[in-house]
Amino acid sequence: MRGPAGFFLCSLLLVAPHCTEVAAQDVQPDPKTPCANWMGGAPGYPGHNGLPGRDGKDGKDGQKGEKGEEGVQGPKGDQGEIGVLGQEGPRGFPGYPGQKGEKGEGAFVYRSAFSVGLTERAPHPNVPIRFSKIFYNEQSHYDASTGKFLCSIPGMYYFAYHLTVYLTDVKVSLYKKDKAVIFTYDQFQKNNVDQASGSVLLHLSTGDEVWLQVYGEGDNNGVYADNINDSTFMGFLLYPDLDVN
C-alpha cells in the first residue's frame, strides 16, 4: 500500500465524504454535476388518473334571446260541448204598437128567454098552466095563450118554476113533448102559505115544446097567486148547438 497506489486510495477516501455532504445539502442536485449523474435512478412510470372533481355551481342566466318567427297555424280543433245556460237577461223595452187590423165580421148572438107569472087561482089539472103575466118575452118564444114554450134555436136550456101553495096540496110536472120530465109535490099546511119549486136543464131541438101543468085530478091543484103572492115560470137558452147557422 505504500507508493503511488496508496496515495491514490487515500485521496479517493478524502473526496468521498465531501461529495456525500454536498448531496445532503442540495435536495435536487444539479444534473450537470458528476455526483448527480452518479446518484440519479431510471425514470418512473406515469401515475393513475385521479377521481373526477365535484360539479361546479350553476352559472348566471344568460340574456333573453330574440323572438323567433311565428309558426304555421295548426288544424281546427273539435267542437266543444255546449256550455251551461246563462242567466235570463234584463227585460227589454216594449215594442211599438202594431198596425190596426181589419174589421172582423160581427158574431151573431143567439137569444131565447122568457119569464112569466100566474094571474088566476087553481088552474085546471092535466092541461098546460097558462101563465099570462109577462115579465119578459122579447123573442116571443113563449105563447101565453097556450102556456107553452116553443124552441126556435136548438141547444141547451134552463127551466125553473116557483109556486105559491095555498088551500090544498100541489103536485105539478114539467113536460117536454108530451112527456113528464120532473115532478114536484108539496103538502099544504093548514092556515099557512107554502112554497114549491123545481128546475132542470134540457136539450131542445127546433119545434120542441115545454110547459108546466098540474098532475093528476083536481085534488092537487093548490097553485095560488094574488096581488102579494106570485107563482112564476121561466126559461132561457144557455148555449146553442154548434151547427146552428
Essential attributes:
single chain; mainly beta; 10 strands; rod-shaped
3D structure, described in words:
This protein is mainly beta and 245 residues long. Helix content is 11%, strand content 30%. It has 2 helices and 10 strands; from the N terminus they run H-H-E-E-E-E-E-E-E-E-E-E. Strands 1, 2, 3, 4, 5, 6, 7, 8, 9 and 10 form a 10-stranded antiparallel sheet that branches. Strand 5 (155-176) and strand 6 form a beta hairpin.
Q: What is the makeup of the main sheet? A: 10 strands, antiparallel
Beta percentage is 25-35%
The helix/strand order is: HHEEEEEEEEEE
Average of per-residue pLDDT values: 82
Which outline best applies? rod-shaped
Stretches with pLDDT under 50, minimum 5 residues: 18-26
Number of helices: 2
Which class do the helix and strand fractions yield? mainly beta
- The N- and C-terminal alpha carbons lie at a distance of 183 Å
Number of strands: 10
The helical percent reads 10-25%
Radius of gyration: 72 Å
Summarize the structure.
The chain is mainly beta.
Give the topology.
Blueprint: H1 4-25, H2 34-39, E1 113-117, E2 133-136, E3 142-143, E4 148-150, E5 155-176, E6 179-186, E7 194-204, E8 209-214, E9 221-224, E10 232-240
Antiparallel strand pairs: 1-2, 1-10, 3-4, 4-8, 5-6, 5-7, 5-8, 5-9, 5-10
